[in-house]
Amino acid sequence: MYFRTWQRLSSVVLGLVLAPAAMADWGLNMPQGITEVSQSIFELHMLIFWICVWIGVVVFGVMFYSIFKHRKSKGAVASKFHESLGLEILWTAVPTVILIAMAVPATSVLIEMYDTKNSDVDIKITGHQWKWQYDYLGEDVGFFSNMTTTEDEIYNRTEKGENYLEEVDYNVVVPTGQKVRFLITSNDVIHSWWVPEIAVKKDAIPGYINESWTIIPEGQEGIYRGKCTELCGVNHGFMPIVLEAVTSDEYQVWLEEQRAGKIAEAQAALGEFSYDELMVKGADVYARSCAACHGNEGQGLGSVFPALAGSSMALNDMAGHIDIVLNGKPGTAMQSFSAQLSDVDIAAVITFERNAWGNDTGETVTPKMIIDAKK
Amino acid sequence: MNSNSTQPDNQSGHKPNNTALKLVIAAVAMFGFGFALVPLYDIFCEITGINGKTAGPVERVEQWVDTSRTITVQFITTNNAGMPWEFEALQEEVEMHPGAWTQVNFWALNPTENDMVGQAVPSVSPSEAAEHVQKTECFCFDQQTLKAGEGREMPLIFSLSPDIPSHVKKVTMSYTLFDAGAFAK
Amino acid sequence: MTTATANHDDHGHHGPAKGIMRWVLTTNHKDIGTMYLWFSFAMLLTGGVMALIVRAELFQPGMQLIRPEFYNQMTTMHGLIMVFGAIMPAFVGLANWMVPLMIGAPDMALPRMNNWSFWILPFAFGMLLFTLFTEAGAPNFGWTFYAPLSTTYAPSSVTYFIFGVHMMGISSIMGAINIIVTILNLRAPGMTLMKMPLFVWTWFITAYLLVAVMPVLAGVVTMMLMDIHYGTAFFDAAGGGDPVLFQHVFWFFGHPEVYIMILPAFGIVSQIIPTFARKPLFGYASMVYATSSIAFLSFIVWAHHMFTVGLPLQTELFFMYATMLIAIPTGVKVFNWVSTMFRGSMTFETPMLFALAFVVLFTIGGFSGLMLAIAPADFQYHDTYFVVAHFHYVLVPGALFGIIAGVYYWLPKWTGHYYNENLGKFHFWMSFIGVNITFFPMHFIGLAGMPRRIPDYALQFADFNAIATVGAFIFGFSQLIFLFLLIKTIRGGEKATDQVWEGAEGLEWTIPSPAPYHTFAEPPHVK
Q1: Mean pLDDT computed over A143-159
Q2: Does B180 sit within 8 Å of C109, measured CB to CB?
Q3: DSSP B6
Q4: ipTM, 2 dp
Q5: Predicted local confidence at residue C230, as pLDDT
Q6: B132 close to B163: Cβ distance less than 8 angstroms
Q7: Using a CB-CB distance cutoff of 8 angstroms, which residues of chain A are in contact with residue B93?
Q8: Alpha-carbon torsion, ordered A323, A324, A326, A327, to 10 deg
């Protein structure tokens, strides 16, 4: 008899222990994540959760018992008691003890989370409206990361991809088994960088640098997706993060590729590009970097973001067009793209803008023209 | 409606108009307190050194140089939106002993066709290092004016005080450059 | 103004003025209370429509109905209208009606200021709502309006927003001063502070909170105004300012503000449960001390809204501990309510149903609040739907159910008619079911990683979002039952006795139902 009870009890306990992980799979619970810190946070979360559940069971239990038993319709007669110093002291002291018990592990996890020293890799993360920029300090590697989900998917004109709203053109790559420190800031308004699986979230504040860190254990290589978590304007929901964890060796190779890629880009800019090549590339760059504000069809958005289709700058003023893409327009949301896009990309997108949507200027902007404009 | 001063048997014996006046004064005082929070916040940050803010210029003093350890100091720069200047640290990082004075130069260039005024805002990580950063000269102390097309080197002369905690091995000094035209002095 | 003598029981010559000027010029606390309540109900429905627009868009992934620009206006305006237009004025309306009656006073201490306090509000909110129809659009930076999104990057409507906040703030401050002066000076002889009904106590404490923090809100929006129009740099790093300063000053107001929005509900529930349990409130003194502790503590916890901003470690720990502390007096109150019920003789009329649902569902909101207080865990919860779930639980089945409970409880006294109990219960059950279907799934999607304030979401969040939307429509449309019931009851129904409820105690139940236009011209003696 006791064994049966023990069996039942242990299945319940086992179920409760395993349930949280299962619940996460069903989208009911926080992920345990892949780092020590994320696991500690998850355990803390579950601890507080269960304490709350048990307190709730007791309190609501008494309450529902009372609702059932102490009803006038069942003939209950009201007692007159209305105070008890002893009870007040008891139910002040017991919660205090429980809270202290919670505060202890909470304190040690927080201290751990604040310990950014002895990092192996330092990555500066800058939030922009509406994309992230990553710079690997001391490595001469840096790039922007834009969402690649298309307007067509968002506005239900085509089917949504598997990683709808969670995919970017360039992932932020980090090595496993090493301490990675993040230095987080912003170019404009407050953003916030969050990757749930590594439990790193920090606000990106203009003028400030904020720190966080992670160690992704070896064996946890993979793709982890995150979000911006501070309202930052119209496309706050459209600037995701994709963190790619690779082995240390793969990371070194990737760094090399990035550096080589930059050199290749600079050299490519000196090469020849046909009008058609530029138009194809330009359409792609436009979709990633410009369409969010200037619209799929270059139609703009009222007086907030100017239309490019039929605009006098796109039709007549090539020098002004190049200047505004390179240097932005101070006092407006139009940023400088000279750091974000390669010379080839800039040439391509301007060519595209001057010829798409009926603009049809027939003009070609070459990468060499961009290099000259920068001088 | 009774006027209050003739209310019989007033429980508290207060004059209502006095209470109302006191509360109005309290409300005005709290409005002032809200504004007082502005300098109070800065003072709090300065005294405690928390929040990663560094203090203003100090006198250069000869101090003990702790040659038993070195600290890596990284320099990063960010341009705020609408700030098109070239802006970078000419050295990405330096190794220094606590107590030693070092100069690092930064480069800024205004590529536009207009004269512009910039303001660099410093931030230090980890924030506990901020109170140990001593600067005798920093381009961040003043607004910097660059004429159209002008570029120049800007110095930062600083040291990390010898009592910086020993567990601090890496310090990152960040400067964000803003267009301060609206606030030009 | 003529002074009534002890022999007359009303002003003598005539009752209330006729027509619209009655309402424009009234200084009668009952009239003003009624106007506040109707205004707040209109704002509830307005803010509710905005919520339904938001939830309709979130029914499925993808943008179906509106664009992200408009979505941000909807979420911002929903928050502003519900906080400042629905919840706060509703509590002020209940205070206006009930505080003088509960303390045996003929009216509020400053009746003409009372009239101003109300009439400012339609103008303030008219101005705010008008911005929806301008080209620049309504405020779109969240009801918490962080700088620099709300300063450098704000639409031109931000100036109207600032003026609206100023006007509404002046209204609240004046109302609070009125309540404090009334309670301190106009209590009937024999009613010591520790004999006051709990609703009066909680409003007394709330009023002090209002006087303390609404001016700070006025300060922060004034600083914004100066940054936007007068070239100052409170929050702009370019001029030596600091965006994080904005958050500190805003939340110094913002945290006490949320207690302002719940303390009166605690008071209402503390009136209703003893009535329908036919048993005195358990631990009256303890309830007063607990409410006071909550009010004091509310001033030192503000940065728990800022755990991810980059606060230094010691600061973060301090705010975590202080926030956890608030759980203690709050828990004490819940235990006292349950002890009031225990060994009582309960019946379950509509006010009691709403009050009981408050105790359970507010406590659930309190539990998620305790989880949020744990700073390391908050890094995973902050700015996700877990927070949205938490504050909607404490505000909707919390504050709003408290208000609704109070309205059902006192409606027979105000109108002289019992409301239809079956319809009331129907309203309750639809609201209860709707509110839980709407907000419980938000815990899950928040934990699973969905941020706040986004108009579109990744596919894994779709199912629970759809469920929440269904719940929102159920809850929203259920409030039309309430509207119908209110109008029906005002116009007629079973005549209510003076006592109205068998177990009710307090001075408000010693006067006729409906309450005469002027009451307690001669103060009663309280034993």
Answers
A1: 93
A2: no
A3: G
A4: 0.93
A5: 94
A6: yes
A7: 137-138
A8: 100
Burial class (CB in 10 A: 0-12, 13-18, 19+), A80: exposed
Distance from CA of A259 to the nearest CA of C (A): 32
Select from C243, C337, C257, C361 the least CA-distant residue to C301. Answer: C257
Confidence band of A4 (pLDDT split at 50, 70, 90): low
Q: With contacts defined as CB-CB under 8 Å, which chain C residues touch A153?
A: 62
Pairing verdict, β A121-128 and A179-186? parallel
Distance from CA of A309 to the nearest CA of C (A): 20
β pairing state of B93-96 and B144-146: unpaired
Distances (CA, A) of C308 to A105, A204, C382: 19, 9, 8
CB-based contact (8 Å) between A27 and chain B? no
DSSP run (H or E) holding B175: strand B170-179
Torsion, Cα of C322, C324, C329, C334 (10° steps): 160
Angle at C469 between CA C466 and CA C470, to 5 degrees: 90
DSSP calls for A238-279? G--EEEEEE-HHHHHHHHHHHHHHHHHHHHHTTS---HHHHH
Beta strand A141-145 pairing with A131-136: antiparallel
Q: Is C452 a catalytic residue?
A: yes
Active site residue C257: yes
Report yes or no: B25 at the C interface, CB cutoff 8 Å: no
* Lowest pLDDT segment from A118-127, A270-279, B167-176: A270-279
Neighbours of C378 (CB within 10 A): 26
Helix intervals (H) in C350-461: 350-373, 375-381, 385-394, 401-415, 421-448
> Kind of pairing, strands B151-160 and B101-109?
antiparallel
Distance, CA of C273 to CA of C286 (rounded, Å): 16
Task: Tell me whether residues B76 and A137 touch, CB distance under 8 A.
Answer: yes
Burial C148-159 (b: 16+ CB within 10 A, else e): bbbbbbbbebbe
Residue A253 to chain C, least CA–CA distance (Å): 32
Distance CA C141, CA C138 (A): 9
Nearest CA in chain A to C454: A237
CB contacts of A197 in chain C (<8 Å) are none
Cβ-defined contact of A45 to C356 (cutoff 8 Å) = no
Q: Is C515 a residue whose pLDDT tops 90?
A: yes
Q: Render the burial of B7-27: b for 16+ CB within 10 Å, e for the rest.
A: beebbeeeebeebbeebeebb
Residues 6+ apart with CB under 8 A from A242: A145, A166, A167, A168, A171, A172, A223, A224, A225, A226
Cβ burial C401-423 (10 Å sphere, 16+ → b, else e): bbbbbbbbbbbbbbbbbbbbeeb
Instruction: Please report the residues numbered 233 through 252 in chain A whose beta carbons come closer than 8 angstroms to any beta carbon of chain C.
Output: 233-238
Q: Where are the beta strands (DSSP E) in A117-171?
A: 121-128, 131-136, 141-145
Interchain contact, A188 vs B74, CB within 8 Å: no
Which of B123, B53, B154 lies closest to A124 in space, CA to CA? Answer: B123
Check C305, C392, C413, C518 and give the catalytic one.
C305
Q: What are the tens digits of pLDDT across the range B155-167?
A: 999 999 999 999 8
**Closest alpha carbon within chain C to B24:** C177
- pLDDT over 90 at A15, yes or no: no
Q: Are C138 and C73 within 8 A, CB to CB?
A: yes
Model's pTM, two decimal places?
Answer: 0.91
